[in-house]
Amino acid sequence: MNKKILIIVSNANAIGPNNRRTGTFLPEVAHPYAEFENANYHIDFASLTGDTPYLDALSLANDPSNLAFLTGKGWETMQKAVKLSTVDVSKYDAVFVPGGLAPMVDMPENELLKKVIKETYERNAVVGAVCHGPVSLLNVKLSNGSYLVNGKNITSFTDEEERGYAIADVPFLLETALTKQGAKFHAAANWSAHSIADGNLVTGQNPASAKGVAEKMIVILEAAKK
Predict the structure, then answer these.
(1) Membrane spanning segments where (predicted)?
(2) What are the phi and psi torsion angles at 127 (to 5°)?
(3) pTM of the prediction?
């Protein structure tokens, strides 16, 4: 039986006091999608509201994986993302949350998303997120009352990267927020490919890290088959 992946995307299309346009950052969904597709996994999309999600960084469409996503089944499927509350997430072997600035708008406090992440993690399915996507891990409390990220080796878009990108737009700095909840945060050079697996939790630092997150998720999922 092929593994099933649920990609959970934001519905936000603007952020900050100047209404900066945003969405899911194209390579952060397209590159993992390509890896999951190559592994012959079943891929579904869900969004928080069930409305059509938005894409950012369409200027990067000349990248082969990005172009394949836009012209193949990927974007077509993502546009039909179902409302997360209608999904039986227990049927999926992994959930993945791509970034872009959009998740910083609607994912920090979403109670259903926090429940989904908690339950997925606690049943030992794989949880993956990249760049600003790890905001989905923020404020997730496990059954023992501790924060999911407490004591975990993780990464995300760093404070230093944010200062050169969207410091005027984001409501808070993600690295700082995750660290305050006990995360053992690991930062690499700005914009370099950097992903970390800690048990069944996989995180990546920035767009260049999205492929690596998917690769690490696949290693864990394939090991579970044996």
Answers:
(1) none
(2) -115, 120
(3) 0.98
Best CA proximity match to 7, nearest among 73, 102, 89: 89
What gap in Å lies between CA 16 and CA 162, rounded to an integer?
14
pLDDT above 90 (res 187): yes
Query: How many Cα neighbours within 13 Å face the side chain of 51?
Result: 8
Q: What are the C-alpha distances in Å from 149 to residues 106, 108, 182, 195, 201? A: 19, 14, 6, 15, 9
Tens of pLDDT, residues 93-149? 999 999 999 999 999 999 999 999 999 999 999 999 999 999 999 999 999 999 999
- Which residue from 108, 171, 170, 172 is spatially nearest to 140, judged by alpha carbons? 108
126 with 217: CB under 8 angstroms? yes
State how far Cα 3 lies from the chain centre. Answer: 18
Rounded Cα distance, 12 and 62, in Å:
24
Report which residue type is found at 184.
Answer: K
C-beta atoms surrounding 16 within 10 Å? 16
Average pLDDT (211-223) is 98
Helix/strand number for the chain, H first, E second: 8, 13
Domain layout of the chain by residue ranges? 4-224
Q: How does DSSP classify residue 225? A: H
State how far the alpha carbon of 71 is from the alpha carbons of 51, 76, 112, 171, 206, in Å: 21, 8, 31, 34, 24
d(CA 11, CA 105): 9
